[in-house]
Amino acid sequence: MRSIARSCLIALLICGLLDVPAFAANDNSLGKSLGMIIESNTAGLGKTVATVGTTVYPGDSLWTDSGGILRLKMGAGQIYLLSSSSATLGGNSDATWATVSRGTVGFSSSASQRLELVIPEGVLRAANGQPAFGQVTITSPNEVVISAYSGALVLDNAGDLHTIGAGTSFRVTMALEDDTQKPEGSETSPEIKFIPQKRRHLLFALILTGVLAAGFAYPIYLELSESPSKPKN
Fold it and tell me: How far apart are CA 145 and CA 23, in angstroms?
């Protein structure tokens, strides 16, 4: 009897070990990584301090305190948060995006990868799938400043497309409407991003032409402008 019981126990243990890889594979498939943190100063990932080398996933929340900066490598592109900013990451097979809650968030995208910034005014991305570098600064609940440092950007306002030309910066103001809400499930699923359910009335005011990245964004602009194969001293 003891021999039979021991054999049954061994068989159960073997079956359990065989099931572990399958479970782990299923778990990884549910949380495909989006990129990695490559610079962090006074910044956080969820409820923890953001550490260089940490992998990020859809649904991760990012934030910086006053004077902080957080930069992520996302495939061939990058996303960064400047001082006193926050955003939530999302992604699917077509694009990777950051939904901006406050502050200043920017991105650098290549022709091979689609990066987007989601703001109440719509979805901002590079125009025509070309490389671009730009950022948004939320200045109030109904106003944002959009700057295109390199390459043209497109703001998609529920299908109404507005082009932000390279080297320009616009202040975009929208009319607030109480009946425009986030799609059901957007608070829980990283696969759903906020897109206005109907077009918002937007006003565009040109601020600057020939705009160049300023403040903390300037060194980022210089680094992103370098060839990936160019060695650093």
Answer: 45
- Tell me the backbone φ, ψ of residue 176, rounded to 5 degrees: -75, 140
Encode pLDDT of 146-178 as tens digits: 999 999 999 999 899 999 999 999 999 998 654
In CATH, the architecture of 34-225 is Sandwich (2.60)
> Structure tokens of 121?
């005014």
Locate 18 and state its tokens: 């065989």
Average pLDDT over residues 95-101: 96
pTM: 0.74
pLDDT over threshold 50, residue 111: yes
Per-domain residue ranges for the chain? 1-30, 34-225
Dist. CA 17–CA 19, nearest whole Å: 5
Burial class (CB in 10 A: 0-12, 13-18, 19+), 9: exposed
DSSP designation for 71? E
19, two tokens: 């099931």
Give how far Cα 226 sits from Cα of 70, 165, 221, 231, Å. 19, 21, 9, 9
pLDDT at residue number 19: 41
